[in-house]
Amino acid sequence: MRAARVTAPGRIAVETVPKPAPGPGQVRIRLEGSGVCASNLTPWAGPDWMTFPTEPGSLGHEGWGVVDGLGEGVAGLALGDRVAALSHKAYAEYDLADAGAVVKLPDSLAGEPFPGEPLGCAMNIFRRSDIRAGQDVAIVGIGFLGAILTKLASDAGARVIAISRRPFSLDLARRMGAAETIPMEDHGAIIGRVKELTGGIFCDRVIEAVGKQWPLDLAGEITRERGRLIVAGYHQDGPRQVNMWLWNWRGIDVINAHERDPEVYVQGMREAVDAVASGRLDPSGLYTHRFPLEKLDEALNATRDRPAGFLKALVTV
Description:
Blueprint: E1 2-8, E2 11-16, E3 26-35, H1 41-45, E4 63-70, E5 82-85, E6 94-98, E7 102-104, H2 116-129, E8 136-140, H3 144-155, E9 159-164, H4 167-175, E10 180-183, H5 187-197, E11 203-208, H6 213-221, E12 223-231, H7 244-250, E13 253-256, H8 262-278, E14 289-292, H9 296-305, E15 313-316
Parallel strand pairs: 8-9, 8-11, 9-10, 11-12, 12-13, 14-15
Antiparallel strand pairs: 1-2, 3-4, 3-6, 3-15, 4-5, 5-7
């Protein structure tokens, strides 16, 4: 099979390697593609802890495709089933996954890309946010995740205030149901505008979906007393400081929404399948850039540099 390896910071090679054989309780998936996650960007930059070259297919964890091999003891899945999976070497033509980490895709989604991991992540974050009708909900950072959360929150009856850097993202947020949009430019001006919109009490729920210090600081400032601050951004570039005085004084509940229980993660993927299959959620317009496996480096660079109109890259096989 063909598989991509990161050979050095900012460099890939696509090599021919043996297809993996499924072990007990595993399935082999003939991949159709994988989403590209922003969490790939730190390894792509080559931090001190990285070892090169990576294993074939490594970093890819948003794959979908067709089951083409079954390990001993696998039940409930059959050859030819189209699935999304939690796997870890999906920048390749084939990958292995535990059978319990695989979700079937219905015939109604035939031919449609389905990066199950980020879609399931969005559903799990939404559940943990406890968003209800009538609440004021700020979403800081409108990328792929923030756009989906905007749609879910607005459909739940919340008034969504979308805060993001790019005009493209703010336009997208409005299309996804945001009632208000604010450019992420001036810290004090953003706080003032949110205070004005909420009658001085700030937001019931604030979802930080950037993964940087400043947006985290901002998120705390615009969370109301006894509100809930949900950390959905992936903070992987070092320690963070928080204004503990403010968090204490307001009695803020803080939720780290990165799910680590595989069963809960898969449940989120199942909920995402139901939402997309029913038409309640349509992520198709959010996949803005597609690259073949041989251009994985371009996909990663686009995810880092975010050219005009960029939201989410898919690598197709």
